[in-house]
Amino acid sequence: MQFKTGSGWKACFDKERNYYSAQYGGIMAYHLYEISKEQFDKLDEKMSEYEASDIICKGRHLYMSVDDRCGPPYSIAFDNEYRKLCPWANIMGSGRLWPEELTDAAVEIFESEKNNRKQRREKREKREKQKEDLKMIHLEKIDHKNIWDIMDLKVKRDQREFVASNVISIVDAYATIGTKCHAFPFGIYKDKKPVGFLMIGYNEAVMYDVYDVKPPEALKNNYSIWRLMIDKRYQGRGYGKKAIELALDFIRIWPCGKAEYCEISFEPENTHARDLYSSMGFVENGEMDGEEIVMVMKL
Q1: Which residues have a Cβ under 8 Å from the Cβ of 123 and sit 6 or more positions away?
Q2: End-to-end distance of the chain based on CA atoms, in angstroms?
Q3: Distances (CA, A) of 87 to 13, 18, 26
Q4: E strand segments, 28-180
Q5: How many CB atoms lie under 10 A from the CB of residue 97?
Q6: Is 242 helix (H, G, I), strand (E, B) or coil?
Q7: Is the separation of the CB atoms in 280 and 297 below 8 Å?
Q8: How many distinct helices (H) and strands (E) make up the chain?
Q9: Per-position pLDDT tens, the chain of length 299
Q10: Helices 239-251 and 271-279, packing angle to 10 deg
Q11: Could you tell me where in the chain the CATH 3.40.630.30 domains are found?
Q12: Distance CA 203, CA 206 (A)
């Protein structure tokens, strides 16, 4: 990376990505921008913050944070990818992040944010479409009509180590028959199209006796999200989170009686799963399920 640094400002040229960006300000008001090559070339390290900011602010605003003591501190992410775009930046955060709706309104109103309008409008349209898509997500019991469609669903190649195949999961569900463990396998559907697989368990600890392995305490007489996968063609659309919400709705009708917790686990390397489960209220309880980290939600 190539940098230009002045008093109160800094600019960067990322050669690998051919990407230019710059920051200026401090604790009271911090700004991060995407800039052009022409803007980068105009910047001179002898420039003051005021002179440099006059050039930088003609770019696309990525992020700002304000704590001028004239009101509550706040931060605005005009582009949610700002950290990824500018890993070099010394990003300052002084207060609560504005919600997307308020940020959209500010971009439409203020002339200074016109460079963000096209992108924000496209993202807003994408969010609205995703909301409509999520309304069509539902669970269907697996039977002779859809079992083959569900077994054909696959995750990405690099995700196979994190989740069992749907064939194995359905075999596991069959194996609970006649035990004190109960399994509820479902297809995840968008309208009439299968997009994933979900299996809810109750008292899953019973199945560990087969392997003479001590189960996590969280699996004893509690519910669990035993398996969850979204087909590789439909990932990144919020379907996994929606499926967990539907699973919790099902659990709270207490098909096997009331319980204290819902358990879920994940491989330590699967940081996406950790972030997703945490965002929904699951917390680590200190237990391990083999090599997997256990999380629980109080029902």
Answers
A1: none
A2: 49
A3: 12, 14, 17
A4: 29-35, 60-66, 74-77, 96-97, 137-141
A5: 15
A6: helix
A7: yes
A8: 9, 14
A9: 999 999 999 999 999 999 999 999 987 899 999 999 999 999 999 999 999 999 999 999 999 999 877 788 999 999 989 999 999 999 887 678 899 889 998 888 888 888 888 888 888 888 888 888 899 999 999 999 999 999 999 999 989 888 899 999 999 999 999 999 999 999 999 999 999 999 999 999 999 987 778 999 999 999 999 999 999 999 989 999 999 999 999 999 999 999 999 999 999 998 889 999 999 999 999 999 999 999 999 99
A10: 50
A11: 137-298
A12: 6
Place of tokens 């939600």: 297
Q: Which amino acid is present at 229?
A: M
Question: Token pair for residue 168?
Answer: 């194995």
Length of the chain: 299
Residues 243 and 136 sit within 8 Å (Cβ to Cβ): no
The CATH code of domain 137-298 reads 3.40.630.30
* Residue 54: both structure tokens together: 């006059």
Strands 96-97 and 74-77: parallel
Q: For residue 288, what are the CA distances in angstroms to 80, 181, 201, 263?
A: 33, 20, 18, 11
